[in-house]
Amino acid sequence: MAEAQNVLDALADWVGHQRWFVGKGTMPTLRSVASLTLHHDPQLEVKILIAGDCRGAEERLFQVPVVLRRAYREAGAPGHIGSLRDADGLEWQLYDGPEDPAFTERLQRLIADGESFGDDTASVRGIPASPWPGSGMTSRVLRGEQSNTSIVYSVDGDGTGESSVICKIFRVLQHGENPDVVLQSALFTSGSTSVPPLFGSVAARWPDDSRPDGSASGHLAFAQRFLSGAQDAWSLALAAGSTHADFTVSARQIGIATADVHATLARALPTREPTAGDSAVTVAAWRTRLDAALAEVPELSQLRPSIELLYERAAGVAWPMLQSIHGDLHLGQILATPDGSWAIIDFEGEPMRPLEERLLPDLPLRDIAGMLRSFDYAAGSHEPSEGMTRWAHECRVAFIDGYIAGSGRDVRKNRVLLDAFEMDKALYEVVYEAHNRPAWLGIPTAAVHRLAARAATAR
Asked: In the predicted model, what is the mean pLDDT of residues 244-249?
């Protein structure tokens, strides 16, 4: 059997070039935190490795599923990483697990059958939610993802059938339950039709000397229905905007779906009254973001008095109940299905925030503000014009109208607070665009000017 550290040594260069690796431009120094064996025989090993990148003050953990084979797979098979020799001098071929059927088949059975592997030090277990729609399914990896790896299972081989499943592999691990699993499980078990049906998840426990009991735990994977033929709302909005076609009907429906998700989460998971401490922490975070944005784009400094006035007013109004929310809602997280319904996906929240923060109750207004910004970006992706400005405004109004219709709550009565959340999101975008896409900087700065002007003229 190949030792876990030997495998990681062979993987280090490969890991450093993966899109999900946090620390672009550098190579990791990997140590073995846990090695979970799902299958072993003289010719084949299937493992889930939990690896720590030892560089820096804070170690980052990664999940690396691998398959070791004594012989090469068929010529041209995807996922081949390299080779290594074990302590007995035997050579093994190393494959990326999601690309190898030995791993994907084992993962399906792990979830569907609720199997467990491991010992007192580290363990992994499948958590079924509903029966898988088929057996003997073929699999393929979705391309283009940044922070995770998704496997599409299907009976028909191309993922277009009604029985297809998508299983997301969480590559970056932290202690605690993943909100993508927690929130969608709560929505699914509560009967919401605004998320795809769930099939189950995988949880694990691994050593962690920094914790009182010496161990940490979290989710490794999450399986749900793959919505074949679905189109994301971002692509649809871009296409509509390119011809100035009406998108308000869709925007209103998205607002209704968002309201359904918020209402269901409020019923299924704890809510609480906001405290003075909650608002103080939030406003302090807004001001920190404001300082960062003005440092990046000093030309916005003339707007500071109006922005500070907006934040002061927002701090002084009554805040709605705190509850679980999506946390990173935008048009790319909304899917239009072939049957005409809308589904919301990817409930992980802002990926750069600590996991424990992403699970805390928050204001639904944060999600609403995110969607309003997304409509601005859809319009701003085209040549600026009065027509595109009007198109974005109409979409924003329709989304809010749909949310009010779906929730029965007039969020326009929280306009000051909603403007403050949208301002904070726009200032975040200012920093991001200044660092990464300077040509797009005009999109968030226009929003900052608009919201500041409204704050300055409000009574």
From this structure: 97
